[in-house]
Amino acid sequence: ALPNRSDILTLLLNDVRLRSKVDTCILIINDSLADVVATRDSVYTLLRWSGIIDEYLVIWSHKLTFSLSPQSFFQTNTHGAELLYTTAITMSKLALWDRTHGTILDLYCWTGTIWLSFIASWIGDRLIGIEETPSAIQDAQNNVIRNNIWTDTLFIAWKVEQLLNISQDTISVWWDDFIPLWSLRLIIVDPPRSGLHKDVLTLLGEIKLSHPHVIICYISCNPVTLARDCKILTEHYTMGVIQPIDMFPHTHHIESIVILS
After folding, report:
1. Is 68 left (phi over 0), alpha (psi -120 to 50) or beta?
2. 221 labelled catalytic
3. pLDDT tens digits for 58-99?
4. Residue 2's pLDDT band (boundaries 50, 70, 90)?
5. Of 18, 44, 211, 238, which is the most buried if we count CB atoms within 10 A?
6. Cα angle 54-51-33, degrees, rounded to a multiple of 5
7. Positive or negative: CA dihedral 140, 141, 147, 150
8. Are 81 and 75 in contact (CB under 8 A)?
9. How many CB atoms within 10 Å of residue 102?
10. Residue tagged active-site, from 109, 217, 221, 230
11. 3-class DSSP state for residue 187?
């Protein structure tokens, strides 16, 4: 017979070997049909220790440290993530030519893993990160401090697809005094499997009209939605290099990096 939830919890909390190897233990109950670990309605229960774990990425010669809370996203394949980000950095540098100074706009910034990797590799002087999960925003702010990053940063807890629907007054409060309009150089998007919302695609098209030198580094975990989005984005952008990264060997899952300029 399959073990019930009580048996599993007892094992997790009392097994000597697990207790010596596991940093923290959190029970997440997700009763929805969505193909995700958790939803807004999921219940989180801290079973042992602090509920925060540390992760590390080595990007070129830089060792970056990240604190992660339960609702924060981090790639499950750490070495694969290092390859993914270093490849994205190399591709972006080639596309930017000598325009690596300026502002990075990260539209799904999570805990800051991608843009911190870029800034540590000398791309970008400022960062605007937008992420709807408040705890992930807090993690990103903490990770700036932990990694001694002195770049100007602005984090906004907001749904990316709602950016077109907010008032100009709200936008002014957020970044009009923070970012010179001419300084936007790079937009990073790493959306969920569903890809970019139609309003985000519209926003990216509008940005290109006012910032002709901007490029997009699109990191995708779903080739189907990536192809759909790129077809729309090429109304304003030119597709450049496409590079798949096999993050999960022996499965059908594949990550892809696309540069649009």
Report:
1. beta
2. yes
3. 998 899 999 888 777 888 889 999 999 999 999 999 999 988
4. low
5. 211
6. 105
7. positive
8. yes
9. 20
10. 221
11. strand
